[in-house]
């Protein structure tokens, strides 16, 4: 069996790198939005922010983990382009990409779904406020970041060697 | 390249079927729990159940979709065992399994995370009540159903043909 031609491999590597850069950018904006979201209650003067809710704290954790993972993957990609060699040689690199993308994509959608699940209920019957608007925008951007990672995960699934020990 | 030996293929098909049966059972119990969960407010006499929360309605939708998908996959597996042929021949079956497991596993974890995200906040500062206890148990069972589906999805990723048109 011939290896896939260098050109098709380069195309999918470029597409993967683009997906990771896009995920990185969306997660960065999502992180900033949820971190700065706050609201002062007009009656009581109490301030609320993300740290008052376990669910938003979980969401911010998933964003940070996804952000670090994409940073690492981008560094690996740049190393590969510059040196012409993969950081992890052999099947290790494919397996790392496959399991990394798979787990991070599950993590990102769980953070986004948890954030949406709470935000939708917090908003019901309440006038729109700055805190829930920012939380909603952050969960939406996290969902977009998830979609890019899910597409990357499909690519890295098809790139798997037919057998792990092949 | 020789095909994988029939025995190893049978082993992974049996493992897949087992994972689908387990997912099916956990989703069924999760569905019953969230459907019967209700609570009467002692002061006001108001009854609440899952349909009062958009988030729990979403969770129940993901459970039902996962349930139907696993029913279909189990029917396909039984057909395959009985007739010796796959329902979808060629690569179609592998691609259906791959994308099906991938999408359903994303759906299940999103339902579970949304359910947990809301339940954790509903429970805070409140005495434990029957409604949130059942919702929490349902989200937990849904999470276990997700884990089985994620393992099945890993199997069906490795079973992918090396190239879609191979």
Automatic annotation (TrEMBL), chains A, B:
Location within or outside the cell: Cell membrane
Transmembrane segments: 15-37, 58-83, 103-120, 141-160
Membrane topology label: Multi-pass membrane protein
UniProt KW keywords: Cell membrane, Membrane, Transmembrane, Transmembrane helix
Top-level division of the source organism's lineage: Eukaryota
Residues in Casparian strip membrane protein domain copies: 12-148
One Gene Ontology term, aspect cellular component: plasma membrane
Keyword Metal-binding: no
Family membership: Belongs to the Casparian strip membrane proteins (CASP) family.
Subunit structure: Homodimer and heterodimers.
Protein name (database record): CASP-like protein
């Amino acid at each position: 069996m011939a290896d896939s031609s260098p050109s098709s491999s380069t195309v999918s590597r470029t597409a993967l790198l683009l997906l990771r850069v896009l995920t990185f950018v969306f997660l960065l904006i999502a992180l900033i939005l949820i971190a700065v979201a706050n609201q002062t209650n007009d009656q009581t003067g109490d301030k609320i922010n993300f740290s008052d809710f376990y669910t938003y704290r979980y969401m911010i954790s998933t964003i940070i983990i996804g952000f670090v993972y994409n940073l690492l993957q981008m560094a690996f990609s740049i190393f590969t382009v510059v040196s012409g060699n993969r950081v992890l040689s052999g099947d290790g690199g494919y397996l790392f990409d496959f399991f990394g993308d798979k787990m991070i994509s599950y993590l990102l959608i769980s953070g986004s779904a948890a954030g949406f699940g709470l935000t939708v209920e917090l908003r019901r019957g309440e006038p729109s406020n700055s805190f829930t608007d920012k939380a909603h925008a952050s969960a939406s951007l996290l969902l977009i970041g998830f979609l890019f990672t899910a597409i990357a995960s499909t690519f890295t699934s098809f790139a798997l060697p037919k057998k792990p020990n092949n």
